[in-house]
Amino acid sequence: MDISVVAVGREDDSPIDEPLRVGVLADRLGYPEVWVGEGPTWDSFVLATAIGQATGQVALTAGPVPVNVRDPYTIARGAAGTAAVVGRPVGVALGTSSKRVVEGVHERPRARPAATMEESAAALRGLLHATPGEPVVPGSPFRRRLPPPGGALTVAAFGDRAIATAAAHADRMLLDVVSPEQVRDLRARLLAAADKAGRTPPTLAAWLPAAVDPEPETLDQVLGSIAGYLTVAGYREVFVEAGLGAAVELAESGADRETLVRALPREAASAVGLVGGLDTVRARIEVYAEAGLDEIALVPATAGDPGGERTLTALGPG
């Protein structure tokens, strides 16, 4: 089981420079890779460059980048530029994001998200490996000047069309906030899609909230990251089966994040994450490995644990 670190996953009220602390700590502890998500606050490539300049060896993956707000060339250029500045491989993760982000923040239509993901992944498969001297895009008079970024292409997937895109084009498929039962199902669907595409299956990774020996405020942060999934198809059923039907109904009624955090029982943090004492968390990692994950990307809770230091130190390499 590979273990990497997510410096910034989703928007919350943590200090804006917290992702830099997380990335620097992950590098110091010897983690092999840091993911740099994108949201209303941070541009993935800018933050990945900052983390790269502040660290010595950790590989970087920018994204998931919303495919409805960046064209494939812009994504490839961002990764190549970051790699050129930091002097080490930079990968790209693609996602469809949400209507709240794409339309509410970027004011772009979130039209045909699955089709746009397929088109972007297919284009990036070539763009990320173009060498200097080649056209920046096919048919362009402009020539590529930067070396290829050298990192993997990851596709965030949950539905069948996104899984098919990952199977056809990606080096890795990414899940977010999933239970072991969901991992088993999604891995089976990925293997079937890869077989249909005639490709070796991509590796399977998941972003999982992580908190070792959490403080009360740490648990609140983890529960806040879960709250946004209570009404999402495929997740809703998992939470209902876990005994969280009342919280799901409350979310469907339009309750805000703070209300949902208060309503969720503390044990909900363990349903789709790595939360508890060190032995408990390590046992949970084994459950995810047995379910079919190749990689866990730790999303360390930082409330009550600045930089996620307690969690990342406890789970670090060696």
UniProtKB/TrEMBL annotation:
This is Luciferase-like domain-containing protein. Gene3D superfamilies: Luciferase-like domain. GO terms for molecular function: oxidoreductase activity, acting on paired donors, with incorporation or reduction of molecular oxygen. It comes from Streptomyces lincolnensis. Pfam families: Bac_luciferase. PANTHER family: 5,10-METHYLENETETRAHYDROMETHANOPTERIN REDUCTASE, PTHR43244. Keywords: Oxidoreductase. Residues 12-294 form the Luciferase-like domain.
